[in-house]
Amino acid sequence: MKRIYLNEKENEKDFIIERKEKQYKFPKLILIMRSELYRGMFLSVTEDTSNKVTDYSELSNKSFQIFEYWIYSNQIKEGIQITQEIIKEIETRNRLFSIKSNKSKFI
């Protein structure tokens, strides 16, 4: 998949999400397309958020894998069992996005 960026400045291409001393870089444009939280963060603030790091250490490995796959594909990986516990963790503790009742897609 080719990366699409909001601008060409090298230090502003990615947004960093940190988990347990490891950093994951996500293209800002994809985060804007997939999440109202990030859309609001990047499009409505005037401060520089280019190098901002969000810590997701409290998110379980399974929940983070679901989040990461969804960010890039806009769907939940086939065969993944999403329990009510995972839904609650993603929606409530991290306020990333909502999960439709059919659990097939994040909005």
TrEMBL record:
A Pfam family of this chain: BTB
InterPro entries assigned to the protein according to its UniProt record, in alphabetical order: BTB/POZ_dom, SKP1/BTB/POZ_sf
UniProt-listed Gene3D superfamilies: Potassium Channel Kv1.1, Chain A
Boundaries of every BTB domain copy: 13-80
Protein name, per record: Kelch repeat and btb domain-containing protein
Biological source species: Anaeramoeba ignava
Lineage: Eukaryota, Metamonada, Anaeramoebidae, Anaeramoeba
